[in-house]
Amino acid sequence: MNSGFFIFNKINSIMPSIKLKDIDTRAPKDFDKKETKEKLEKILQELDDLQNLLYAESKHSLLIVVQGMDASGKDGVVRNVFGKLNPQGVMVKSFKEPTAEELSHDFLWRVHSHAPAKGMMQLFNRSHYEDILITRVHKWCDDETAKKRMQAINDFEKLLTEHNNTTILKFYLHISPEEQQSRLEERIKDPTKQWKYNESDFAEAKLWNDYMKMYEDCFENCNHIPWTIVPADQNWYKEYIIAAAVKNELKKFNMQFPGLKK
Q1: Tens digits of per-residue pLDDT, 106-149?
Q2: Is 17 exposed, middle or buried (0-12, 13-18, 19+ CB in 10 A)?
Q3: Number of H helices, E strands in the chain
């Protein structure tokens, strides 16, 4: 456990299988909301400069995968953490139910074309992991097929990192079932959020334990690139953790503005 969030990478350390019920969904008690939001604003300013440098240097690319249950705040992360960055260098792809054409290809076909080019920051709002999560919960994909897909996902991510200088950050937004229910009900009552309402979300929420099991299996088998499990009951803390992680990763690139072209 680190500052209230959890980085899971069994490949590089000996540790027991993760159990989401044992990980807190709220910020540590010593985190002050006002102070943390002030720190977030400073981080976002630095992120703006780093993203501009990433785009200008055009040697690295960054893929940010955001997964989580309905109402865990994925859209809020896209809007509040990355919404102020230069849109020329930031792309967002939301993966929804596959189309007929997408289903006629392998499951990664629709994903690969959205992998980031050098100089770009790409956000996946949901991702290729849906094909081993919701598909298993609803028995559209059997366990044997899921295991093969997990291996394909590991190979796909290895391909991006080794052959296009792509860094991948994977975040799971860890919300409690109580907070999820509260947010889903808010979508019914709040006119500004009613557009998000989907009756099926409540049916999916009833499958909570099945989803937790599939996520835990995902963390167990697709962790060559580590997962960061982010407490998501409080949006201010969730956004701070993700913004700080992205900033710290970009600083590791040791980027420089290119000089005059000769």
Answers
A1: 999 999 999 999 999 999 999 999 999 999 999 999 999 999 99
A2: exposed
A3: 10, 6
Contact of 141 with 131, CB cutoff 8 Å: yes
Q: What distance in Å separates the CA atoms of residue 225 and residue 209, rounded to the nearest whole number?
A: 25
What is the sign of the dihedral through the CA atoms of 194, 175, 246 and 122?
negative
Question: Residue 51 corresponds to which tokens in the numbers above?
Answer: 């993203």
0.70 surpassed by pTM: yes
Rounded Cα distance between 262 and 245, Å, is 36
CB 64 within 8 A of CB 78: no
pLDDT tens digits, 198-234: 889 999 999 999 999 999 999 999 999 999 999 999 9
- Residue 115's contacts (CB-CB under 8 Å, 6 or more residues apart) are 61, 63, 122, 160, 164, 166
